[in-house]
Amino acid sequence: MNPTMWMAFLGTVALMQLPPGPDSMLVMARGVGQGRRVALFTVLGMTVGAGMIQLPLLTLGISSLVKASPFAFKLLQWAGAGHLIWLGLKLVLFSSVSSGPSQHETAGPFAAAREGMIANLVNPWPITFMVAFLPQFVDPAAGSVTLQMLLLGANRKMTGVVVLGTYAIGSGAIGTWMMRRPSFMLWRQRVAGCFIIGLGIRMAITGGMSR
Questions:
Q1: Whole-Å CA distances, 51 to 46, 121, 168, 180, 206
Q2: What confidence tens digit (pLDDT) does each residue in 111-137 have?
Q3: Distance from C-alpha of 168 to C-alpha of 31, rounded to nearest angstrom
Q4: Continuous segment of H or E residues that includes residue 132
Q5: What are phi and psi of 99, to 5 degrees?
Q6: Which of 3, 113, 127, 147 minimizes the number of CB atoms within 10 Å of its CB?
Q7: Do the beta carbons of residue 156 and residue 134 sit within 8 Å?
Q8: CB 147 within 8 A of CB 100
């Protein structure tokens, strides 16, 4: 890709990812409710993990079929909303006060990454965004269209690592501050859980956003 066009692409997708969306909201809730480490692994699941599935599907054209089918799109939307509501309910119902992290907080990094990946995969808007946006930067005369789509999609996911990682670090710092104050521990988890439940309800009613 022409370097000027590539820089324009990176700048555009970064700016589009800055406003809070379902992924960034979930990352911030995880950072405040469970700490920076969990939030960062959630980011890796949303970007690297989900990208390993979404990008091949994109190049094979399956994502275009999903976009063209309102029923498939609705199924993804409802599945994504249900998953977020379940994550929020776990924080609300199974939170506990103790001298250390709760059992749910100590879930391994792979569990956090897996849940982040699922949350991104069942949100229909990343697929729609890539199908509609990435081809605008493809130049058939420059070489393999498939390779260009893969590279553009990978670049888009990497900008997501930077943007969502920033959200994770910032919200994790707030969570660490609260963790030093035991009276906040139970309520920070419950508030984070309610926030995620509200986000899931919003997705069910209005759909996701570009991230």
A1: 8, 9, 19, 36, 24
A2: 889 888 988 888 777 777 777 677 777
A3: 6
A4: helix 124-133
A5: -75, -15
A6: 3
A7: yes
A8: no
Instruction: Cite the DSSP H helix spans in the chain.
Output: 3-17, 22-34, 36-44, 50-60, 62-68, 70-94, 109-121, 124-133, 145-179, 182-206
In angstroms, rounded to a whole number, what is the distance separating the alpha carbons of residues 107 and 94? 13
90 within 8 A of 16, measured Cβ to Cβ: no
Q: Which residue has better confidence, 141 or 94?
A: 141
34: nearest Cα among 119, 97, 107: 107
Q: Which residue has the tokens 């089918």?
A: 69
Please name the residue that has the structure tokens 């809730």: 29
Instruction: Say which residue the tokens 């091949």 belong to.
Output: 56
> HSE-up of 47 (CA within 13 Å, CB side)?
21
- Distance, CA of 132 to CA of 201 (rounded, Å): 26
Residue 140 per-residue DSSP state: G
